[in-house]
Structures are given as C-alpha cells and as structure tokens.
C-alpha cells in the first residue's frame, strides 16, 4: 500500500490536534468527583500547553483552547441537560442546544487564555511557568462573577481531597489551587520538552519542591476547635423532583420528615433545601410547633429549608429560606445568590417567555435575600448557612466569617438526577471547608448528604436516593485562615500583577525594527 501523500498528511494534522484538544478537555474531567483522579487535569493542561506552543498564531491557540473547553465543560456539566429536559420539560433538541450554547460560552475562557499565551512575548519557559498559570487563575476568577458567575469546575476543585496542592486552599482559595495546577502542568510540559538534562532536572526539582512544600503546609493549624463536640443529624428525604411539588404528595413528605426528626437524638438537626414544600405560613397548624418541641427536649435546634412568602405592600416577595426551630429564638436565612432561570429570570422583560413557554420549573420567581447576613445562633454554635448553588462562591461564604464556627449547606440536587453533579457539589463543600478551616455539613434532598471536616475530608455520607438520617459529631472552630481574611482579592491581585509585569517584560524584549 502506498503511503499517504505529504500534503494529505499535513492536512490531517490540524484535525488530529483539534480532536486531541477535545479529548484532552474530556480527560481533565476525570480529576473531579466522583473519580477524583487529581493528576488527570495536570496531564491534560500539559498537553494543552504543548499544543498552544505549536499553534500557528493567536487565533489557532484560541481555537484549541475553545475546543479543549468544549470537551471539558461538555463532559463536566452535561447534567445541565438533565435539569432542562427531564425536570424542566424542555424538548430534547432544545435542551441539547441550550446545554451546548452554555458550554460554548464557558469554553471562551480557556480560549482567551490560549489567545493571551500565544501573544505573550516572554520566552517559552517563563511564559508557561509564570504568565499562563496567572492568566488561567484570573480567567477562572472572572468566570466566577461575570453575569452572576459560574465557578463550577475550577481546576482547583480537582485537587480535593487527596492532592497535596489542596493545602493552598486556606491561603489563596480554589483559584490559587488552580494556579498551582497549571504551574505543575507547565513544569511537566517543560521537563518533557527540555533537551538538556540540567533543564529537565531543574523542572522536575521545581515540581517536587512545589508538591512537597504543599504537602507540608497541609499540617498548618490555621484554625482551632471552639466549644464542646456537637451531635448532628442530617436528614435526607429522597423526594424526587417529579413528586416534590405535587400537592398529592405533600402529606407524605411532611410525614417523612416528621418521622426522621422524631427518630433523631442530636442537638442539631438539619433538613434539606425546601424540604417542606409549602410556604412557611401555609404549613399545617402545629406541625412546626411539634418539631420545635422535639428540638427543645434535646436542648437543641432544627434548621429546616422552607420557602417563604413575605408581603411587600401590594405585592409579595418569595424567598428560598432556612428557619431555625427549637431552644434558640426563631431565626431565618434567606438565599441571596439565586440560580439564573432556575430561581429567577434575569431581564424578565426579555427572557420571561422562557419560563412561560419553554421551561416549567416550580418556584422560579424568588427574591434575593440580603447580601450580608449574620450566622444563626443554634445548638451552641454560630452557623453560617448557605443554600445549594451558593456553596460554589467562596467569597460569599466568608462574609459570615470569622464569626461563624461551622458551615451548613442545604441543597436539592434532585434536579440533576443520577449524574456527577451531586458529587461535584460535595467536592465544592470540601473546598469550602478547607478554605475556612471549619466543618461543613451538607444536608440534601436526594444526596450526597455528608459531613466534611476542616481538612476537607468526608467523615461520613449517605448514598444517593436513600431515605435516612446521617448521624455524627462535629466541632465548632474559631480563627481566621488567610483566605477568610483576604478572600479572592489576594489571588486576583497577584495574578493581575504577574500579567502586568509579564506584559511589560515582553515589550522590553521586542526586537527593534
């Protein structure tokens, strides 16, 4: 058989590299829950850096970054389709199109980093080791707040719970860990490309120093226990989204949670997001009183997710709320960071037709709670509550710190079915525990309900789609990690400074005309 013509082989190369970019993006998803292969994103990014260095200009590098992003986000957040089609009643083709457009938008961020990487005039090694990791971290930070933000699948999450790089979380947060991931990839790529043994050895030594130093830093006690151990019960009712808001199933739901509460002997009992599917004022007379009596008998409190309706003049505001019941005075936390198109309609005059004609999502017109709220004083602790999606925003969680002694997340991940989303959310909770140096407990409707210690380790968990109570013991913690003190400002400012210095250095190296 005759070999292919050189022209045909050359024409195939861009297709092969483009396909490789998509595959590399998909491979990076293996680093996230539930697989947790933390080395996968590092290898994936090393390949992407190699491809960027060989791209024929900025546009080609941006295209490779975009294709990598399509594979990465397409594989990592494909559960968006489940919520749109299976539970939002959107047609399959329209749900698929909406999911693709969403992933394509997210893919613009690695495309931008590729464009900047190819345009940076620094030499290859400092560009890969200094410029690009900072650009990546800054791009993730922007993705975390632009258009209300979607920080899901920041590379730093992939290093929880086992990678030594997770030790950077209490200092620089998840974006600082992402920075270290890309820097590690750059060292791997530079070592593979180095021709001289000394250069290869220098890269490998740098990689070893980074990882060994991070491994040693994980032992730093940024926070310390405060108060006596606390018994806790996290309730999982396993109410499918197809029945949760069905009026015919309300009585069964209330009965299930009343039974689970009655069986608990813990001082703090936590029910999931909107666990009781009636407005607070519409619940049967005596139901909440009975729950409160049980908590008081245990000298404790209950935190229950209950939607809230509050009159506001001639209209009414609706809140996704968590109420406390029991020994302490009744308190309420109202969700502040709402999910676009899931809990509110952005630019309702423009997009209102989406809910009325394309999506059928109950409780999709919530109001925002206050931006800053105090921790709830319950069961002898000061609890920083956050609801579902809010847990992805570390900068918002720390608004209640250092006053709060522990974190509580209540969620309803039934929207995403049997997908990776519930496990990814648990991984996010592990990062929040690391960043703050506190226990975070997560009570969910269908799972994963879990207890996470201040080192980011899951100490106990319930399986998905099981009715039950997770009973355990936690501790309150006091103190302030560097991340609690400075938030994302530290890594964003540092990254911006590195980029500015790199651009100045690149201009000075520009050859004279």
- Provide the residue-averaged pLDDT: 91
In sequence order, what are the helices and strands, one letter per element? Answer: HHHHHHHHEHHEHEEEHEEHEHEEEEHH
* pLDDT < 50 stretches: none
Q: How would a crystallographer describe the biggest sheet?
A: 6 strands, mixed
- What class do helices, strands and sheet pairing give? alpha/beta
CATH superfamily of the largest domain: Carbon-nitrogen hydrolase
Number of strands: 12
Number of helices: 16
The first-level CATH class of the largest domain is given as Alpha Beta
* CATH fold-type name of the largest domain: Nitrilase/N-carbamoyl-D-aminoacid amidohydrolase
Strands ordered across the widest β-sheet: 5-4-3-2-1-12
Gap from first CA to last CA: 51 Å
Q: Please state the CA-atom Rg, rounded to the nearest Å.
A: 24 Å
**Portion of residues within helices:** 40-55%
Question: From the 3D coordinates, which CATH architecture of the largest domain would you assign?
Answer: 4-Layer Sandwich
Write up what this structure looks like.
- Helices cover 48% and strands 16% of the residues.
- The chain is an alpha/beta fold and 513 residues long.
- The protein folds into two domains: 13-220 and 488-508, no CATH class; 224-480, Carbon-nitrogen hydrolase (Nitrilase/N-carbamoyl-D-aminoacid amidohydrolase, 4-Layer Sandwich).
